[in-house]
Amino acid sequence: MPSKEALKEALGLKDVIRAGWIRAGVQNPESVAAHSWGMALLATQLCPDDLNLQRVLKLCILHDIAEVHVGDITPHDNVTAEEKHRRESEAIQHMGVEAAEAFDEYEAQESAESRFVRYLDKLDMALQAEIYEGQNLDLSEFKMAVDDW
């Protein structure tokens, strides 16, 4: 079981602001924790019956937990995918929360649940971009092809 200090450290994700939104000029952008919550909300509404919802929710909540230590690394940061993975893996190993298994599953993209969570990651970003476009910003780079609702 994680220590009280490890849990408090992990809750620091509430204070890590999504770097892509800052770079795009969004005023008052969401935190990484808010993004993870958005994914979890989407999961409760969209998870197919043949997937394990509990596992999906765990992946949603923990997939970015290492960003407490490494920050929100974006494609614009000139960090290779391999280096990003290495940094995040190392951070998780030292955090004291039980997140390494979920992080590894999400990164490997071998389970149906992890692939669905990757979709939710993109969907949450696209929907959030639509919300932020109310600030008269072009956020098309953050959108993906999403069916009209």
Explain what the structure shows.
The protein has 149 residues and is an all-alpha fold. It has a single domain (4-142), classed as Hypothetical protein af1432 (Orthogonal Bundle), CATH 1.10.3210.10. Helices cover 58% and strands 0% of the residues. The protein has 8 helices and no strands. α3 runs antiparallel to α4 (53-62), α6 packs antiparallel against α7 and α7 (100-108) crosses α8 (112-132). The longest helix is centred in the C-terminal third of the chain and has 21 residues, at 112-132.
Instruction: Report helical residue fraction.
Output: 55-70%
* N-end to C-end Cα span: 41 Å
CATH architectural arrangement: Orthogonal Bundle
> Globular, elongated, flat, extended or rod-shaped: what is the shape?
globular
How is the CATH topology named?
Hypothetical protein af1432
Beta-strand portion reads under 5%
The low-confidence parts are none
Q: Count all strands and give the number.
A: 0
Tally of individual domains: 1
CATH homologous superfamily title:
Hypothetical protein af1432
Order of helices and strands: HHHHHHHH
If you compute it from the alpha carbons, what radius of gyration comes out, rounded to the nearest whole angstrom? 15 Å
Q: List the total number of helices.
A: 8
